[in-house]
Write a structure and sequence with these properties.
Helix content is 35%, strand content 26%. By secondary structure, the protein is α+β, with helices and mostly antiparallel strands. It has a 5-stranded antiparallel beta sheet with strand order 2-1-5-4-3.
């Protein structure tokens, strides 16, 4: 299942009242366009911080080259180290408030250098997914 199929599956589960299947499919195409061409690095993560969907900008920023290399992998498999990421604190805030935002120093996977990033995380209320946006600062 590729990124588009995963996105289509997520969108198909959204409540859309009195819309034909054709209209619903057009929403999927619009969301695909927004996701792929966004000027922000975006990832959708599932259980245990595993990547479900990643746009190209996100994969490039993290040094993975293409999104497919990140799909199904956990955060600890993508980054060379997670020691500077306050995972427990982030999980606590996400559980209490449903979102977290902060600046983190992240390691680049390929060259080992670090980069400063502003991370925004938003937890879905209805399912166990997390939307992550990342901006290099």
């Amino acid at each position: 299942m590729d990124n588009l199929d995963r996105l289509r599956q997520l969108v198909e589960e959204l409540p859309v009242r009195d819309k034909s299947l054709k209209e619903k499919a057009s929403y999927v195409d619009i969301l695909k366009e927004i996701f792929l061409k966004s000027p922000q690095a975006i990832a959708i993560m599932g259980d245990n911080w595993r990547y479900l969907l990643v746009n190209e900008l996100f994969a490039t920023l993290y040094g993975c080259g293409c999104p497919e290399k990140m799909i199904g992998k956990g955060l600890n498999e993508i980054l060379s180290t997670t020691q500077d990421i306050p995972i427990e604190e982030i999980n606590y805030v996400l559980k209490e408030e449903g979102s977290w935002e902060g600046n983190i120093t992240l390691p680049h996977q390929l060259n080992g250098n670090t980069f400063q990033s502003k991370i925004s995380l938003k937890k879905s209320k209805d399912r166990n997914i997390l939307v992550c946006t990342c901006i290099q600062i």
